[in-house]
């Protein structure tokens, strides 16, 4: 079974449909791998092994009866511990919610189940997804399968570690400032942040988010798996008033239709510092598109700084959601998380207005890019993965970075602007750690984004995956 652990989800699903392997056998191998690796990685924080085995055997029975199967039938799915999977706790990585048992699935999880995916467990996340590395007081630190001393990133770090280590072929993530793309970059996986509303979101703790910056999406080992995931999960649902209508296309069916001679802008640094070996690998990765016949233009100069605006809007949303819990449970929240949330009480409407104006300025910059180019490319992150328990790096190339947000400077701006963005594996740093190329498309052009990522993947397939020791 060991040769199956790193196969893409769509290949495993085809093997199940074609009776090359039983879903029950694959699930048994999955659970044994989780049992062997999870004590080292801490990717999963809750499991449902007996139910998963029973559901996998039910898939085998459906095959024997020649019944219709969904595209993910029989495959193990990890669900990030910020969304609901019925029968499992949704703790948000936070001690006050350790007993918060979900009674029904989120829309995303329900659609994945309907496509045949089998929820095997919940994956670790920093408290309420607030940091770019995965550590919390409830479950501890999640580690990177390429190097156990390093972080897999966050906030979807548990999902990324589970996928990159071959525990599961797909997992859910969410991205409010890079939380899918950051761990995809640090683990060498593929991560997609879609346009806002492409996948419906459920209210969190009874509150629909008002910041329209966070989205749901996949972590996978192949672009096709992510495209199938999006096919399964996209489309309007009344639970989310911001959810978009179905696009009327299949993202997976369109993968090999990348237009010829695209105009692509590559910004290597946003006017900020980038680790030298990361810069080298990302530049080479972007150059692949030139080799494929596209027009690649290097653009330079500082990009409008959106960091403070993004922080203020995010902290305000968190405070609005949690204020009823803060007094009674102040001692149970992580200190840095609590400090960030409580800081929102000092943000008045004047500062909110200023933040929204900054958002407009950045949107104007992006609008100018897409008036001239079909795609924008940047590094996903300016550094390789840092220490598993944090903190984020304070310097790059031996120089202090000053603002800590510069450690994730390329991801959060596109949460503010709402553009779809993805991280593909660019290569490896001198330390042998993955780094990422971020591809950004115009709003609602997930089709073009996935086509570009797929073409890149065909040119540079990610054949090497980590061996956890």
Describe the structure concisely for a colleague.
It contains 13 helices and 15 strands. The chain has 469 residues and is of the alpha/beta class.
Descriptive account of the structure:
- It is globular, with a radius of gyration of 21 Å.
- Strands 1-3-2-6-8-7-14-15-11-9-10 form an eleven-stranded mixed sheet.
- The mean pLDDT is 97.
- It has helices at residues 9-17, 23-41, 49-64, 107-114, 157-164, 181-187, 223-233, 276-291, 307-326, 335-342, 349-372, 413-417, 446-459; strands at residues 44-47, 76-80, 118-123, 135-136, 140-141, 170-175, 190-193, 215-220, 263-266, 295-298, 375-379, 395-396, 399-400, 421-428, 434-441.
- By secondary structure, it is of the alpha/beta class.
- 35% of the residues lie in helices and 14% in strands.
- It contains 13 helices and 15 strands.
Radius of gyration: 21 Å
The N- to C-terminal Cα distance equals 18 Å
User: Approximately what portion of the residues adopt beta-strand conformation?
Assistant: 5-15%
The residue ranges in which pLDDT falls below 50 over 5 or more consecutive positions are none
Whole-number average pLDDT? Answer: 97
Please state how the strands of the largest beta sheet are arranged side by side.
1-3-2-6-8-7-14-15-11-9-10
Element pattern in H and E: HHEHEHEEEHEHEEHEHEHHHEEEHEEH
Structural class: alpha/beta
Largest sheet: 11 strands, mixed
Q: What is the number of helices?
A: 13
Shape: globular
Number of strands: 15
Estimate percent helicity. Answer: 25-40%
